[in-house]
Each structure stands twice: as structure tokens, then as C-alpha cells.
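Below is a concrete protein record.
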Amino acid sequence: MSGPAHNWRPRLEDRWSRSVYISARLPKIIHRDQLVSWMNNTRWQELCDSGVHVFASAYRCMCLEGDPKDVELWAPWDEFMPRWSCIEWLDLDVSDLDEPKGSRAKRIVELKALLRSLSIRFTTEGRYIRIWGYTRPGATPQFE
């Protein structure tokens, strides 16, 4: 596992155990913040079923109920899966220090092709691929 994944704590599991509470609040948050939705549960499930986890070493997300300064910590895929409907964005860490540079570039191209084939909106944020669940007013991600 690369980089920041070792900092993961069981905090994600605790947060998602309140899923009923989040579900009840979600429509209010979306309306109040005037969010634009780019994903739905079907697309999130297709993403999960596509094997996207083989392209990235760690994951993090921003939950709609979360504080923007409190981005979820990095976690391995099998410990990660939250309730899809509350994900504002999901970052895939595509860096891997043990991999030859050419292999990494090929993996990134393959990941982007997979996301495009699923019609999933994403951006490149440094060494991360960000999948957008929602965008906020005034946000102008440069989708690929």
C-alpha cells in the first residue's frame, strides 16, 4: 500500500453506521447547498463492480455532511465503501512508488478509459483521479 493509506483509522465505519440519519438529511443538504448530482447509486455500483479498485492503491472521499476541512482519511478499498448517495467526491490514489513509471502511466490511461466507458465524470487532481458525486454552485471542474 502506498503513501497515506497507513493513517487510516476505523472512523469511516463509525460515520457510515449513521446511514439512516444521513439518508433523512441528504435531500435537505442537496437542496440547501444547491448541489448538482453527477452520480446515482446505479453508477456507483457499476463503478464498484467494474474492478476500479485494481487501478488505485488507496481511496478517500468527502461526505456531504462532512466539514470541507475534514476530508475522510485514506483507506484500502475493502475497508472503504460508504453509502454512495452521500459522496460529494471520491479520490483514487493512482501513485505507486514501487511501480515502473511506464506501468503507472499505462494504468492511469486504462483507468480513465474505464471511467469514460461507464460515463463517469472525473478530473485529474495531481496524482489523484477524482470522481464527482456532486458539484457545488460556482464549481467548474474540468471534466475529462
